[in-house]
């Protein structure tokens, strides 16, 4: 089986670096980069560990999204930003079927619902999903085209292989995932349970398989709960087997959790991100500057209170003070994460800095309306000339943050259940306002320090 990856940035490259060692990997790329200039046959990834040891994985094939390949995709790893997922999959929707598996690895929540509504409305033609979350820290350290070309020249491997990028695995965490089978796989697993366990009125068949029962506390495993049964289960089985392969598991600390446990873990991470990311993005600061600040603690506590209230409404039962989703417990996790990631820059802060780098320079002679028209025209022209509509769909939202899938998701649940989430809504609007102001060139330039003695 071959795993395709769309959005092979820092996290995607880290995961594919290790997956390529156990199963073939193909990158699905949106644009042609300098390292593709000589049309290399394959790509390699350079990964620098925290101890400065450098590893190289090669032999990764690649395709461009605008070329309209037709061959089916068995397994698709999606590691784009949350707001890019749907439009990244749209050009390859025709290559996905009920025999496919989608691995979703991104920040925030709400993407799965969006995919089901827009791309996979028919349950009979819907792929299976592997929902994943990670705490690994990784960043790109070789971003200049010349550096990549130099790496290609110095690399002693295949002369027809180019370097996709050099990345630093700066923080070792884990990768947790849960399995959401489609109807075809679920039916096959129910038939398996029927053969192995007699049906009783007090204990339905789904009780024996945690994949079919999200509330189960059983630890899932391949042999008992997702065996290699029929063509219907091949893709999901092989995808999970690749993630659990000892060579991958030892490096990424992959853990297969019951779906209910994974959802709790994802909600905790959502509350942490909702507290830290927008504030660090608005201030454009490292996490360390928030730690121990009374003003941040006040904001964080209220964010966690709103998040806990909507989580309780979603669960349909009150949450006690010792429940992992209680406001007190969530705020405790925020403080722990801030201490552990003090030197880090949050993903939303990094997005904000990227928006600054791509902004239209302030032009005094242009009116606000003309600046807005210039920006919109600039966005329309960013797609590849030979990819037309596909390119535009993939790029027109690429410069946004994930706030709609973090604080915005909490607000969405609040509206659904009638819970007040005014602080999360305010943070969401402030982040969007800052992005728009930067893009329109309306943010005042930073003043230069003229005299150090003043």
Automatic annotation (TrEMBL):
Coiled coil located at which positions? none
Domain Ketopantoate reductase N-terminal as annotated: residue spans: 3-142
What is any Pfam family matched here? ApbA_C
- The Ketopantoate reductase C-terminal domain extends over 263-353, 394-434
InterPro entries the record matches: 6-PGluconate_DH-like_C_sf, 6PGD_dom2, Ketopantoate_reductase, KPA_reductase, KPR_N, NAD(P)-bd_dom_sf
Q: Which keywords does this chain's UniProt record carry? A: NADP, Oxidoreductase
Q: Does the keyword NADP apply?
A: yes
One GO cellular component term, please give it.
mitochondrion
Q: Which GO MF terms does the UniProt record name? A: 2-dehydropantoate 2-reductase activity; NADP binding
Instruction: Return the similarity comment.
Output: Belongs to the ketopantoate reductase family.
**Name this protein carries in UniProt:** Ketopantoate reductase-like protein
